[in-house]
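Dear colleague,

Thank you for sharing your sequence with our group. We've completed the structure prediction you requested, and as agreed, I am returning the results in plain text so they can be pasted directly into your records. Please verify that the sequence below matches your submission; if there's any discrepancy, let me know and we will rerun it promptly.
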Amino acid sequence: MAICEILESYDYTTYSAGDGFAALAELEKQIPDIILCDIMMPGMDGYTLLQHTRADQALRTLPFIFLTARTSPEDQKKAKGIGIEDYLTKPIDESHLIAAIQNALRRRDIMQEDTQRQMDALRNEIVGMLQHEFRTPLTFILGYAEYLQDTTEETIDLDDLRTSAAAILTGGHRLQRMIETFLLLADLQRRDLDPQNVHTRNARTIWREVAENYRRDLAEAGLTVTILPDNQFASVVGDPELVGEALRRLLDNAIRYRRPESKQITLSILKELPYIGFCIQDDSQGIPPETLKILTRPFEQADRENRTEPGAGLSMTLIQHVARLHGGTLEIESVYQQGTTCRLWIPAAPETLDAN
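Please find the predicted structure tokens below.
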């Protein structure tokens, strides 16, 4: 019995395609709950089809099962390594096929429930941040404003006036950054990536543009930025503005948390297909181990009561959310008082996948 007939006997609705190109054309018309695919097909093999679906925002989370005559352990290891749900060898056993599909759909449902829990946690996190982090700079502003209000022309001191004005300006800028971050987070929470904003961009170009925007801040901090030449032709697919926003915040953190003796920030591009990594290494003050454990949990932050930099938690939440919105991840490694390494992984563009 043909695969489609087996599935239809279990009340599954099926759509079939003769090769990878036909499958991509079919996927443009309708998105299924799961993809069953042979490895060896004319024109485009199963591995290439998988890479194309993983590079598509609308398709990248679809469960993918290989049905194939290739039985070598190497093929199975390769397939599992690039993210398939299951690997079934021909002749296909009906009970194994149905069990594999049910398990894959069950895992998908669990992931969707987990995503919803993360979104709920994000809402709660934002509310908590608003209660604490907005209050700190606002208190700063109001305190100096009240001081100026109570000062008369006879008692005012120009140095005090300049100090108060500078403090109010600093507090205002902090509030502005946090409000912008909060509004962006709230916007991202309500939507997926806009297909009109999804483009292919050279990864090194994105890093270079981010570093160029911070030229003045880097000079004032006495820091030098080096962009390593590795993987200079690697491209990513996603929203370049959102990816750039996440990278700007990573670079901003490296500048903000530098040590007095800090001199160097290194930017690089990593390639671990089907992802491209934006890596930033610094010799900053680093992150204490207990704080690092909390920062790397989805949508959780360090103890708000002990923070010294308002808005830091919002920025880390934003970076993690941008990563997940693209189907990527954020990795953080840090040694306290020695430095931090962050890697933002974004899906590689089809041409980068095809070149390999």
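Summary note from our side: DSSP finds 13 helices and ten strands in the chain.

Kind regards,
the structure core
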